[in-house]
Amino acid sequence: MSLDSPRRRFEDIDWEAKRGIVLRRQTAGFLTTLAALALVFAFDYVREAPLFSPNPVLRDGWDLSQLDWLFVVSLALFVFYVLVPLATHRRMTAHYWREFRKNRAAVVSLGFLLLVFTLGLVGPLLVSKPQVELTQSYQPPVGLAVDSSVPLSCGGDVVDGRCHGSWQFPLGTTGDGKDILSLVVLGMRVSIRIGLITSFLIISIGATVGTVAAYVGGLVDEVLMRYVDIQQVFPSFLLYLLLIYLFGGSLLMFILVFGLLSWGGTARLVRSAALQRSEDEYVEVARCAGAGTGHVIRRHILPNVSGTVITNLTLLIPGLILFEAGLAFLSLGDPTIPSWGQTIAAGRSDLRTAWWISTVPGVFLFLTILAFNFVGDALRNALDPRSEGQR
């Protein structure tokens, strides 16, 4: 503004003239990606053959299912609303990283989780689904040897009456000859899908309900919280069992049932944090400037409760992975998709003779859950300066 231009008073500004639908680049990029995915989905729907036919890279091809499309959408959400903000706000990201790396166990755990995510994302495209091959049964991991007379049959090399592992099956085989390495990699695929898709459903619904209830208040808050009370006492597990009885086990069913009916705790947690933020000065300034409810929630409340959401996310994902593994162990999951719980259950009767069948996927499951706990503690200390971990 030049010195000669007349000064405008606060009450003279037409705040209503600046209202309207204004998309940020981040949201515009996500919607554009979503539109492109919709076109590819339509093309795949009308196409009779699989979108990715078998080739030297994809051994068995890749026929995209509904779960695959949900996973791709979840990846787009992760990229545009997690990675893009981290890349945009470099100074804040550098500050958080300095605080995060003080916990060395969390740094190692983050590296392990990145490895699991990469193998779960790319590995299933490179390994084929293990087939039953009784001539390869009960092979121990490479470098180990067991008495060939204890497992009734051994498909590996037998030297001096002992069955030795081979590099063909580095982690050994199951009682029906399935490669445990392939089962572990395919189990990673199940874990990242469960963790990413279900958690994004829970976080999206829970964060929206929690912030709206906290900021709007009154009757809206009362209605939403009473619905949360009803939902939290609703037996989601019994509904899942009923759907399994009617339609059979399905990973998509697990994601939809527990993703759409398990966000009550997240909503309460976000509401508690949003109530504190609603009384801050910057929110009052935005209200006085004429900002609408939607604008305040999107630009001021949600970004400032993101620390609570991220911390809750690191606790939510391992719980979902462990819950799915438990259901698969009890044969209540999808029998057509190999998972860690399913592989652990397959070797429970052979623990004394072929311990590696249950132990190897069990170790990966244990390390994944433990890694999420370490990362969650470090993120809470880095994002919340009031936590006990900050000195």
From TrEMBL:
<feature type="domain" description="ABC transmembrane type-1">
    <location>
        <begin position="188"/>
        <end position="376"/>
    </location>
</feature>
<dbReference type="InterPro" id="IPR050366">
    <property type="entry name" value="BP-dependent_transpt_permease"/>
</dbReference>
<keyword id="KW-0812">Transmembrane</keyword>
<dbReference type="InterPro" id="IPR035906">
    <property type="entry name" value="MetI-like_sf"/>
</dbReference>
<keyword id="KW-1133">Transmembrane helix</keyword>
<dbReference type="GO" id="GO:0005886">
    <property type="term" value="C:plasma membrane"/>
</dbReference>
<feature type="transmembrane region" description="Helical">
    <location>
        <begin position="237"/>
        <end position="261"/>
    </location>
</feature>
<feature type="transmembrane region" description="Helical">
    <location>
        <begin position="353"/>
        <end position="375"/>
    </location>
</feature>
<feature type="transmembrane region" description="Helical">
    <location>
        <begin position="192"/>
        <end position="216"/>
    </location>
</feature>
<feature type="transmembrane region" description="Helical">
    <location>
        <begin position="105"/>
        <end position="127"/>
    </location>
</feature>
<protein>
    <submittedName>
        <fullName>Peptide ABC transporter permease</fullName>
    </submittedName>
</protein>
<feature type="transmembrane region" description="Helical">
    <location>
        <begin position="28"/>
        <end position="46"/>
    </location>
</feature>
<feature type="transmembrane region" description="Helical">
    <location>
        <begin position="66"/>
        <end position="84"/>
    </location>
</feature>
<keyword id="KW-0472">Membrane</keyword>
<dbReference type="Pfam" id="PF12911">
    <property type="entry name" value="OppC_N"/>
</dbReference>
<feature type="transmembrane region" description="Helical">
    <location>
        <begin position="309"/>
        <end position="332"/>
    </location>
</feature>
<dbReference type="GO" id="GO:0055085">
    <property type="term" value="P:transmembrane transport"/>
</dbReference>
<dbReference type="InterPro" id="IPR025966">
    <property type="entry name" value="OppC_N"/>
</dbReference>
<dbReference type="InterPro" id="IPR000515">
    <property type="entry name" value="MetI-like"/>
</dbReference>
<keyword id="KW-0813">Transport</keyword>
<comment type="similarity">
    <text>Belongs to the binding-protein-dependent transport system permease family.</text>
</comment>
<keyword id="KW-1003">Cell membrane</keyword>
<dbReference type="Pfam" id="PF00528">
    <property type="entry name" value="BPD_transp_1"/>
</dbReference>
